[in-house]
Design goal:
164 residues; mainly alpha; 72% helix; elongated
């Protein structure tokens, strides 16, 4: 066997591969943590109402959204179906996000779909940063910063917009 027939792996290439692999696993774990522990904000329930409002009446949607979370229950903003109708136009100006929620909610429950979109977008942001910087450790540190992690936990269109 000639020397050129053997596969030679340099230690530096193996180390680089390990760093990239660790970074991708870290980003996946961070995205999973964001999916499991979302920030309970009112916006996610209004987005759910906007998506449900395309196929259901506000009288059907309002009780579902109102009683889905203690935060929504206590909110004075959601004290009637009329107030929900007044809020909806502020949330329907993001039609791509609403379509993505509708598509993903065919696989997940509505709130799980919203959480999944945010967590997946955070993972996408991490991959983009990793490829852009080519520095796995610094990419992990940047994506693990509090404002970036909050994007993955919020359940709004910001993480998806940032990744796009």
């Amino acid at each position: 066997m000639r020397r050129s027939d053997k596969l030679i792996v340099r230690p530096s290439a193996l180390l680089s591969f390990a760093k990239w692999g660790f970074c991708i696993l870290f980003l996946a774990g961070l995205a999973f943590a964001c999916y499991r522990r979302p920030i309970d904000n009112l916006d996610r329930y209004i987005y759910e109402a906007a998506v449900r409002g395309k196929s259901q009446s506000v009288q059907v949607v309002y009780p579902i959204v109102k009683h889905e979370s203690p935060r929504a229950e206590e909110s004075s903003i959601l004290d009637s179906p009329q107030h929900l109708l007044e809020l909806e136009p502020m949330y329907t100006i993001r039609p791509i996000y609403l379509v993505v929620i509708r598509v993903v909610s065919s696989v997940f429950l509505m709130q799980s779909a919203i959480r999944f979109i945010s967590a997946t977008a955070l993972f996408g942001i991490g991959i983009i940063v990793l490829v852009w910087t080519k520095r796995p450790l610094l990419s992990c540190l940047l994506v693990a910063a509090s404002p970036v992690v909050s994007l993955g936990r919020l359940g709004g269109p910001d993480a998806l917009a940032a990744s796009l």
